[in-house]
Amino acid sequence: MPTGSEAGLRRPAVVVTAARILGGGPNVIQVVPLTRTLRQNRSEVRLDPDEHNQLAEPSAAQCQHVRSVATSRIHARTGNVGPVSLGEIRETLALLMDL
Asked: Whose CA is closest to 89, among 69, 51, 59?
């Protein structure tokens, strides 16, 4: 169960684990959860629906809530955010983590 402002419950997420790690079949991956609540927050990346990401409405990738989850918790792949949005998410994560 979430505490405070944590993202919680079952929700879509963007997998941000590197492809070379995913190729090894890890037990845990890193994800950025999505929300339909749009805020003017520099730690969130807006994603608009398109044919590739399969989102039903505008959403935001909550980079401040990046987390590790067991692959057994992943239910299904529903879409792909594409290289531009994934790049924005990665840049935001790098900024947040001072990388």
From this structure: 59
Helices (H), the chain: 19-22, 82-97
Q: What is the pLDDT of residues 26-84, one digit of tens each?
A: 999 999 999 999 999 999 999 999 999 999 999 999 999 999 989 998 888 889 999 99
Measured CA to CA in angstroms, residue 21 lies from 44, 56, 86 at distances of 24, 30, 17
State which amino acid sits at residue 78. Answer: T
The partner residues of 98 in beta bridges, in order of sequence, read none
What single-letter amino acid sits at 28?
Answer: V
Rg of the chain over CA atoms, in angstroms? 13
- What is the reported pTM? 0.87
